[in-house]
Design a protein that fits this description.
Layout (H helix, E strand, L loop, with lengths): L2 E6 L8 H10 L8 E3 L6 E3 L20 E8 L6 E8 L8 H5 L5 E3 L5 E3 L10 H4 L6 E2 L6 E2 L5 H4 L6 H5 L5 E5 H17 L6 E3 L9 E5 L19 H36 L1
Parallel strand pairs: 1-12
Antiparallel strand pairs: 1-10, 2-3, 4-5, 6-7, 8-9, 11-12
Length: 273
């Protein structure tokens, strides 16, 4: 049975326990671009002030596999406002662009449905990076290989849940079998709608063939920084190829017509002379 995670953003408090647990379990170092070395005390000093509320990552990367987004919405006079939070990560798409693009077979789907990058096979070609519609995959400066969330591949194949779900104090991140998670998500959505939260929606049932990490949002996915019209790059290939072939045929026809016209003009010139 496929495993996954349901992220209920309506009960996320933005505590970042999930970020810490992800770093700790996976042994991920700090993001190199977020720090400089203090020349006197010889220690790294953070310079990653994103200016985006309390978001201290700014983006998912080869070393930041989880990012807690902070969305602040206030009226012009700041008399009214709200904060929205969302713990973001790899979605482990059923139609995974990164997996489709990988030329070496380094990216594979396990028997539990998660998308996993084999570090001993990856050659760092970066084809997977632009193929991810969510901007999840990055190549590590340290290893030269593509890296991203594995859905705690080592933990879930030993009967445990993901580290982020284990650390979440509110139950906002739930790990389990996809069928159970969907029942839970549908029930929670119905509850919120009944309470008047009519903008609440589930993100991930249909996107990219269905996401094994899916979300309950209180507003449109775009408000949370998620794409609303997803096209997995490989799915554009047939249309692009057809357009290229059609264009080539048109250019060929124009060239043949021009060649014939030129030949005809030369023949007429010879007759007159």
């Amino acid at each position: 049975m496929p495993k996954g995670m349901f992220v209920d953003t309506s009960i996320c408090t933005g505590c970042k326990a999930c970020q810490v647990a992800c770093k700790e379990w996976n042994g991920l170092p700090h993001e190199p671009s977020h720090f400089i070395q203090d020349p006197i005390e010889m220690r790294p000093v953070a310079i990653n002030f994103t200016g985006d509320s309390y978001d201290n990552t700014g983006a998912l990367s080869a070393t930041d596999w989880r990012r807690v987004r902070f969305i602040e919405q206030f009226s012009a006079d700041r008399s009214r406002g709200r904060w929205l939070f969302s713990s973001d990560s790899c979605k482990h798409c059923n139609d995974a662009g990164c997996l489709n693009a990988c030329p070496t077979g380094a990216i594979e789907r396990t028997d539990l449905g998660n998308v996993f990058i084999r570090q001993d096979v990856c050659i760092g070609c970066k084809y997977c990076v632009p193929s991810c519609p969510f901007g999840v995959v990055s190549v590590s400066e340290a290893t030269g290989t593509a890296r991203k969330c594995t859905l705690c591949n080592d933990r879930i194949h030993h009967g445990m849940g993901t580290a982020c779900a284990k650390a979440c104090p509110t139950g906002s991140i739930a790990f389990g079998e996809m069928s159970d998670l969907r029942v839970r998500a549908d029930k929670r959505l119905a509850q919120l709608v009944a309470l008047g939260r009519t903008d609440a929606n589930i993100y991930g049932y249909n996107e990219a063939g269905g996401l094994n990490v899916f979300y309950l949002f209180l507003d449109r996915p775009a408000v949370y920084g998620q794409p609303e019209k997803i096209v997995v790059p490989q799915k554009r290939l047939p249309a692009s190829s057809a357009a290229t072939v059609a264009g080539a045929l048109v250019l060929g026809a124009v060239a043949i017509a021009a060649f014939r016209e030129r030949g005809k003009a030369e023949e007429e010139g010879e007759v007159k002379s």
